[in-house]
Design brief:
This is CR2 protein. Pfam families: Sushi. There is one protein chain. By secondary structure, this protein is mainly beta. The protein has no helices and 6 strands.
Length: 81
């Protein structure tokens, strides 16, 4: 069956653990809105840096993950390259 979504419907809030939205300027997202992400210091992004709220109120591509790992540009000893 076909479900009609309310024009006021919003995607779930795009929270990622150990990361943040960039810039942090919106608190709700409708179909067509795009959000960008960055990870906290000491974490690396796995997945797409941006995601778009779809008409079915899902995020595509899926929200990324922030994994604990080496920071880009640092050697094993933690010294800048």
């Amino acid at each position: 069956w076909l479900s009609l979504l309310s024009p006021a419907a919003h995607c779930p809030f795009p929270h990622i653990r150990y990361g943040r939205r960039v810039p942090v300027s919106r608190y709700s997202y409708r179909a067509g809105d795009t959000v960008s992400f960055a990870c906290n210091t000491g974490f690396t992004l796995r997945g797409s840096r941006t995601s778009r709220c779809q008409p079915d109120l899902t995020w595509s591509p899926p929200l990324p993950l922030c994994n604990r790992g080496k920071c880009p540009g640092h050697s094993r000893g933690g010294k800048p390259l």
